[in-house]
Amino acid sequence: MMVAVFASLSLALLVCWFGSRFLAVLCILVCFALSASLFLWEVYSPEYGFRMPWIQTRYIDNPPTAEKSFVYYLVPQMNGDWA
Amino acid sequence: MTNTTSYRAIRIEPYEPRRLPVMLNYLYLLAIMIVIAAILTAAMVMQYAMGELPCPLCLLQRAAMFGVCFGIMVQFRHGFSYQNTGLSLLFSIFLLIVSVRQTLLDIYPRPGHEYIGSAVFGLHLPVWSVLIALALLIAFAVKLAVLGGKDMLGARVADYPFISKIATVLSLYVILLALINLVSVVLQCGFGECHTFGYALLNQLRS
Questions:
Q1: Separation CA B97–CA B182 (nearest Å)
Q2: What is the ipTM of this complex?
Q3: What per-residue string of b and e applies to B82-95 under the rule 16 or more CB within 10 Å gives b?
């Protein structure tokens, strides 16, 4: 798939410089469609889908500061949970 | 009662583009393309000299930068069109989406997920990509806001021989970079899924 992305991209650039504009734009649109679908395929996880549960989304009452940063690691509920 | 409406011929003067805004526009586009070509060259140097193989999302970011260059190259080769600027903007947005997603993917280091490759000035490459995408979007917005496009309609880069020469050399260099990337992707990924373990096709040929 990645080969198809770069092949259509190279073709678009070559046709743009040495051939017609219409064909070049067609090739780059094909490249864009392939890139977008490959991106979605790459970031999709069977476990999480498109979500990113490792990012903290829970509300923290008392966010850690530089002075009490050790508390952050000691109190489990402040570490947050998987979203 | 007779109709006495009379028609007066109006002579429409052809719009003469002013030379300075057109020249500034071309120089601006050249500057953008030089920066992108330098970034892509640096990425290739890091790949071959430092042995840092690009991940699939990194390769998509490279493709997006080539897409931005494509929009500019069409301007040089086939004349100005808002469609070309639109294509460059489309790929800039794609670059932003891919790089933000990759930055968020590795923002919380855990097994199998951490920023790969060495940091440049303290920032890893996906984070640099976010900044590059934002800079490109701002650059195109400023170009449209300040220089517009009215003067570019009907302008030809061939009327500016010095700029035309630089544009030709730079465009051919970008095409060469894209072809090197294509060969590199074929060697790294083969015709299947991409990995950062090594050059898959070379390993297959060796075994």
A1: 23
A2: 0.83
A3: eebbebbbbbbebb
Residues of B within 8 A of A24 (CB-CB) are 70, 74
Give the gap in angstroms from C-alpha A45 to the nearest C-alpha of chain B: 11
- Do B108 and A54 lie within an 8 Å CB cutoff? yes
Calculate helix-pair angle for B19-48, B161-189, nearest 10 degrees. Answer: 30
Would B153 be classed as within a structural domain?
yes
For residue A80, what pLDDT band results from cuts at 50, 70 and 90?
Answer: very low
What pLDDT does B12 receive?
65
Q: Please give the structure tokens belonging to residue B55.
A: 């991940």
pLDDT of residue B91: 96
**What's the predicted TM-score (pTM) here?**
0.82
* Domain-located, residue B74: yes
Query: B97: which DSSP letter?
Result: H
Count: domains in chain B:
1
Please tell me what DSSP assigns to residue B177.
H
Residue B184 lies in a domain: no
CB B116 within 8 A of CB B196: yes
Q: How many helices (H) and strands (E) does chain A have?
A: 3, 0
Nearest CA in chain B to A54: B108
Nearest to A16 among B57, B73, B104 (CB): B73
Do B68 and B36 touch, CB atoms closer than 8 A? Answer: yes
Alpha-carbon span B178 to B158, nearest angstrom:
25
B32 assigned to some structural domain? yes
Residues with Cβ within 8 Å of residue B178, at least 6 apart in sequence: A6, A9, A10, A13, B66
